[in-house]
Amino acid sequence: MLWPVLALMTAVAIFAVLWPLARTNAAERTAADAEVYKDQLDEIERDRASGVIGVAEADAARVEVSRRLLAAADAKPPPALDAATGLRHRRSAAVITLVFVPLAAISLYLLLGSPNLPGEPLAQRLTAPAGTDSMAGLIARVEAHLEQNPDDGRGWDVIAPVYMRLGRFDDAIRAFRASLRLNGENADRQANLGEALSGAANGVITSDAKAAFERALALDASNPRAQFYLGLAAEQDGRTSDAVERWRKLLAQAPADAPWVVYVRQALARLDPAAATSAAPGPSAQDVASAADMAPSDRDQMVRGMVERLAARLSADGSDVEGWLRLMRAYVVLGDRDKARAAAADARRALASDPDKLRRIDEGAKNFGLDG
Amino acid sequence: MIPEIGHFALVLALLVGIAQASVPLIGARRNDPRLMGVAESTALAQFGFVAAAFAALTACYVRSDFSVLTVFENSHSAMPLIYKFTSVWGNHEGSMLLWVLILTLFGALVAAFGRNMPESFKATVLAVQAWIAVAFYLFILLTSNPFLRLAPAPFEGRDLNPILQDLGLAVHPPMLYLGYVGLSITFSFAMAALIEGRINAAWARWVRPWTLAAWMCLTLGIAMGSYWAYYTLGWGGWWFWDPVENASLMPWLAATALLHSLVVMEKREALKVWSILLAILAFSLSLIGTFLVRSGVLTSVHAFASDPMRGVFILAILVLFIGGALALFAWRAPLLKQGGLFAPVSREGALVLNNLLLTTACATVFVGTLYPLALEALTGDKISVGAPFFNLTFAPLFIPLLVAVPFGPLLAWKRADLPGVTQRLLGAFVVALLGIAATLAIEGHPVLPALVVGLALFVMAGALIDIAERIGTFRVPLATMAARARGLPRSNWGTALAHFGLGVVLLGIVGETQWGAERIVSMKPSDRVTLRHYDFSFDGTVPRSGSNYRDLVSRFTVRRDGEVLGTMQPAKRTFLSRNSSTSQAALMARGFSQLYVSLGDVSPDGSIVVRIYHKPMVLMIWLGAVIMFAGGAFSLSDRRLRVGAPRPARSAAAMQPAE
Amino acid sequence: MTRKRRRLTLIGAAAVVLAIALGLVLFALRDTIVFFNSPSDVISNAVKPGTRLRLGGLVAPGSVVRDNDLDMHFQVTDGNHSIGVAYHGILPDLFREGQGVVAEGTLEPGGSFRADTVLAKHDEKYMPKEVADALKKQGHWKDEYGNPGATAGTAK
Fold it and tell me: Where are the domains of chain C?
């Protein structure tokens, strides 16, 4: 249905160009300038008659306009067109149009457009059969369910992380709050809420978010996410040393294969040099220098060990898109861009059958600056 | 399917545009009427295709088709229908589509109604118009494509920026664009004149109606934008010297100057080179405005999105068109012959003074707008140039201009009698002095605002005297006066109306800025506040639900001398999908003055921060702009501007008043 | 008058108007412009008290204190330094903790800042350009600020 319409439109476009070329004779126009000057003469006469200008002025003006009128009449008409050349021009114009317009239109459109995507107005999406449901459809269904049963705690638990993933933080906040109210409080839920709140504030740990993380820690002092974000809060408030201390402690208690360790290390690496120089006046300058020297290599080694494990796991089972992204990110952090690119390529191979995941890999690669 | 049809229509518009940009030019050079004729049909087809694309995009918005990326990003299925329409251009991509829609609309209008021009000239004009269109099609298709798709379609859209969910958005941008883009026609005329070497009095007459139409839309668009900012932003300001406002003011100043210089060119064939240059500059300033707004160089509520690629692309368009036009100008302009002679004191002299002051004022705005950008690029220092700068530079240039306004239309061409004209303006001087005296008696010192009131009254009275003189009031019998009034060309009425409107605007400005009153108070229900004889009592707050927002409405009863004048209901509006809120101010008109109430934060104890303003004569600012628009409309309906079109049977003889 | 003299009159008039305009512009540019500073700029440039400037940064989370309905103070921070801002009036609708803000006013003796105008971002997408640049300079910019829809705050 689409293509016939497009073909018809192309025909209209071509017709618009060709029609004037085929006209038997274009209407001859009179000298348009002369018309204007004649009208100006009339106007002077009117003004004089109504007394707006005096007789002398009218005469002077009339002379001036008459001179223009003569000049316009004198202007030579352009040489008449010789019929044969005219025909040749018209033919070439017509041929170029006939070839160029459809070809260029189709190629440009195929380059930019999405001819295979049907339009999906709201009314149509609402009545779409269940089998063809997309992620968005599922969300809509859960949302509709929750609208009917707002006290279904499990429903809120399901949808909240989805909102987070989609970046709909305000909805996520609402969902996490509902889950806290209905399912009871635990450290994870509080940390989730805190994360959503800071997401809604563009990554800033607001006082609300901070309160949520603190509550999570009160419930479970070892909650790593709360620890991490409270460190981030300290950093954002300018209390760098607090942040460093918190993250160091967090790393000390971390299980070696915890996936989040790399983020903590990365955050710490951002602040570490500053922390090292602003340390208490105890150690000598040399100590500071060697510590600053030590720490990164030490850190690198640990991280590398972890990254290798991750890489091994992914080469065995390549369906984990999060894992791939983490691996790419880790390589970027370690400064190994070639490996990061290789990881991206591996990921694309492993996920080739899943366009959604592929897109996420592409986005990731772009975010990490791995394109080109 | 609909979005794809729209997309394809836009691609076809580009190709038809390419044909229109080339074939008629060849035709004009070879004097081949058939090749020239291509200009008309393609101009109409281009408009048709862009209109189809625009209609398709609108359909996507109205049907909440979130498989289109821009619809998803700027719309929400629960939005009221009117905002589904207006959100089409409430974002970068859609507003650029509107831009080319209007560009092609003007092209189509020239094709359909420009019958009074020589064929080759018209073909060249339309070809130049098509160059502009082609550049912008490429810009839209390659960097700001409104028809990009999303698969699978998200279920719900992200909603339109709350500030833009307002009726003001329905009318302000299209009107402003009509003006901005309308100036493209004057540009095309200027380029065609340079290419064809046809720069004479007749050219001035052909280009004037188009300039006038663009100027009218620009005037109304700026005024609407100002009123919109006044009532939506919640602090009662109507002009902020914001770079985006300046971007619309600069073309307006240039277009105003052009309108006046065209009069000289038409009557006397003088100022030819200058008028051509102004026509180029006016549209160049529109393009610069587009660049400033669209490139993200400036960030403000108008800059929907910023993307360096877009900025570079528009900059390239800018350099190509402005640079190319000025180069062509430099090459062809020196070939022009001298125009008519005139003495410094004459109608021509007055119009030159008008042009001088308008363009200089425009230049100061230009400096103030671009200086911060230049300084940041050169030194990295960030500065803001605000209202104080513009008040200090713009006002001293505009005041002499306003003083001169009543003189201009009364001066004779070539050489005028200044003392005589001054004598005829005696009535206006008397009115102005009475106004100054009355103002001083009522408001007291300082003297300056009273003088400005006097100036405004002088301009208004001068406009009335202009008409009175022309129809011979007090000199001829009443019947003759009536006959003369009927016979008076519409453009004379237009001039007088527009000048009168200018005085009205000035009166509004001085009233609002000098005698406005403001109070910011925290109120609890049943609290009362008095401002300038008006007594506001806070009755309480009620929630009210809209389709995609919730209002917290506060009711105030307004009394004066104990008599109830009515209630005012400002609100805090919370948009559910974005969880953000806006203030809805309440307005109450008292003659030309307004009372203005807007809400601040609500405290937990139920008290609410309220801003109350009394804005004397504020409505005159926009009323004046409407009068200026009406003046333009009168002028536009003047038969003389349509010369060459088939003349009505009622010939010149019938128009002559019987004396 | 001859053609030449008329032309000279015209050029003379133009020169006078342009000279006046130029004088006004130069005078105004010296006196009316306001510089934009981040808190770090204020501290490192040792800006003198009484200087009028625009201060931009983020509203420090948890720092907004209302003395009463109309008077309040808060901290503006760029991550490295913060400056206390006192303000009397109504805050813009979109003023929030942790969001970008530009305050215009004067620096007072003692290093605090008295704002007479407070501008907040206009919508979720918008961060005042000056604030974004200042944050970038201080190394506290995250791409998420510019693009909250993407991956903001999900560093788990």
Answer: 1-32, 35-146
Instruction: Please state the three-class secondary structure of A351-370 as a single string.
Output: CCCCHHHHHHHHHHHHHCCC
State the chains in contact with B (3 or more Cβ–Cβ pairs under 8 Å): A, C
CB contacts under 8 A, B 132-151 vs A, are 141, 145, 147, 149, 151
> How are the residues of chain B apportioned to helix, strand and coil, as percentages rounded to the nearest 5?
65, 10, 25
Q: Which two tokens stand for residue B47?
A: 């408009």
Query: Does B648 map to a domain?
Result: no
Residue A10 pLDDT class (50, 70, 90 cuts): very high
Whether the CB-CB separation of B262 and B207 falls below 8 Å is answered with yes
Q: Which of A173, A176, A204, A322 to mutate to test the interface with C (most CBs of C within 10 A)?
A: A204
In-domain check, residue B375: no
Question: Distance (Å, rounded) from C-alpha A133 to C-alpha A129?
Answer: 7
Structure tokens, B174: 């299209």
Q: Are B299 and C126 an interchain contact pair (Cβ–Cβ within 8 Å)?
A: yes
Statement to judge: residues B605 and B624 lie in one domain: no
A360 close to A321: Cβ distance less than 8 angstroms: yes
Is there a contact between B156 and A9 if contact means CB atoms under 8 Å apart?
no
Q: What CATH number has the domain spanning C35-146?
A: 2.40.50.140
In this predicted model, what pLDDT tens digit does every residue of A226-245 receive, in sequence order? 888 888 888 877 777 888 88
| Co-location of B346 and B223 in the same domain | yes
Q: Which of C62, C96, C152 sits opposite A203 (nearest CB)?
A: C152
ipTM of the complex: 0.81
Confidence (pLDDT) at A28:
52
As to burial, measured by CB atoms within 10 angstroms (0-12 exposed, 13-18 middle, 19+ buried), residue B61 is: buried
- d(CA B258, CA B266) in angstroms, rounded, equals 12
Which pLDDT belongs to residue A272?
Answer: 64
pLDDT of residue A160: 84
Chain B residue whose CA is closest to A34: B202
Is the CB of B609 inside 8 Å of chain C's CB atoms?
A: yes
Domain CATH for B253: 1.20.120
Spatial contact of B75 and B160, defined as CB atoms under 8 Å apart: yes
Q: How far is B343 from chain C (nearest CA, A)?
A: 7
8 Å CB contact between B658 and B483: yes
> Which residue segment(s) compose the domain that B409 sits in?
405-515+620-637
Three-point CA angle C18, C23, C28, nearest 5°: 125
Which tens digits make up the pLDDT trace of B323-347? 999 999 998 888 777 666 777 888 8
pLDDT tens track for C13-61: 888 888 988 888 888 887 777 788 888 888 887 777 887 888 888 888 7
CATH fold for the domain made of A294-372: 1.25.40
Q: How much is the mean pLDDT over chain A?
A: 76
Measured distance CA(B144)–CA(B500) in Å, rounded: 43
Residues of A in contact with C148 (CB under 8 A): 167, 169, 199, 202-203
Closest residue in B to C137 (Cα–Cα):
B380
What lies within 8 Å, CB to CB, of B445 at 6+ separation is: none
Q: Do B24 and B147 belong together in one domain?
A: yes
What pTM did the predictor assign?
0.75
Write the CB contacts of B55 (distance below 8 Å, at least 6 apart in sequence). B6
Write the pLDDT tens digit of every residue in A304-313.
Answer: 667 777 787 7
DSSP-derived letter for residue B198 is -
| Residue numbers in chain B where pLDDT is lower than 70 | 163, 295-308, 338-340, 547, 576-580, 604, 639-659
- C-beta separation of A237 from A207 below 8 A: no
Q: Is residue B32 in some structural domain?
A: yes
Chain centre to alpha carbon of residue B72: 30
Q: How far lies B260's CA from each of A189, B273, B408, B498, in Å?
A: 70, 14, 10, 12
